[in-house]
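Budget justification aside, the reviewers requested a transparent look at the raw inputs and outputs of the sequence design task funded under Objective 1. We therefore reproduce one unedited record. The lines immediately below are the structure tokens for a 236-residue chain.
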């Protein structure tokens, strides 16, 4: 059944902690699609810059790093709750890219044009064959503007803060609620006001608000949109 259906491209964008990765992971599994979270690439560059002592303000050095760093995203290699394994030049950095320092600097790093150019190129290559659910901020607008399905997943700031706060707690990190909220406000501000590829819904995106909506309902709603698009491809 899965094999007979044509494979389309699905773009899911939205602000931090709007539930994109959870929803995309479930949908990809159900449809037999590749799930690719582009945020991981910006996080890998940020982590490598911090690890190598490259100042975050040094745009040229960080751009060079983005061009040279070998980022690989593989199926989980360790059974520790990860959705995938991330390697940077062969080193497993799956959890390191979720640390507070990376959260703090990833938005300024991803605002650099050269960094975006280098990573967008790789993301397009991954999306080109289809059968992929790609998640990020600019997938429907810039990376894969031809995607047959574009979803903009949103949720209120309060709800997103609650989710991120609980995520931290699950990993044994206790952070004040208001600090987590402030971090999200800052990231959203930089991500949506940067000059190149800012966060915004594509004109043809379906906007889904997940505030107070259980995750399975959000998944079902998006799955319906994908199935409709598949029927169109088959029928047309
Ligand atoms: O989805 P995330 O929180 O892992 O993303 C981390 C940062 O990477 C986010 O604050 C902005 C940047 N990003 C981006 O600019 N474009 C993307 N397609 C994905 C992420």
């Amino acid at each position: 059944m899965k094999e007979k259906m044509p494979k389309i491209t699905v773009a899911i964008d939205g602000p931090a902690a709007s539930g994109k990765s959870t929803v995309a992971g479930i949908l990809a599994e159900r449809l037999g699609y590749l799930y690719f979270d582009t945020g991981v690439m910006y996080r890998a560059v940020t982590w490598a810059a911090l690890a190598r002592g490259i100042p975050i303000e040094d745009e040229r050095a960080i751009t060079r790093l983005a061009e040279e760093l070998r980022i690989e995203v593989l199926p989980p290699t360790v059974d520790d709750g990860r959705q995938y394994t991330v390697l940077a030049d062969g080193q497993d950095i799956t959890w390191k890219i979720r640390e507070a320092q990376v959260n703090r600097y990833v938005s300024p790093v991803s605002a650099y044009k050269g960094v975006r150019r280098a990573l967008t190129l790789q993301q397009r290559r991954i999306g080109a064959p289809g059968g992929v659910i790609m998640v990020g901020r600019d997938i429907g607008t810039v990376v894969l503007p031809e995607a047959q399905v574009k979803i903009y997943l949103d949720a209120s700031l309060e709800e997103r803060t609650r989710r991120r706060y609980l995520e931290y707690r699950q990993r044994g990190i206790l952070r004040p609620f208001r600090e987590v909220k402030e971090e999200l406000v800052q990231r959203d501000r930089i991500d949506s006001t940067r000059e190149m590829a800012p966060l915004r819904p594509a004109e043809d995106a379906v906007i889904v608000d997940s505030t107070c909506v259980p995750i399975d309902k959000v998944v079902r709603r998006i799955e319906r949109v994908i199935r409709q698009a598949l029927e169109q491809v088959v029928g047309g």
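The chain has a mean pLDDT of 94. The longest strand covers residues 149-154. Computational costs for records of this kind are itemized in the attached budget.
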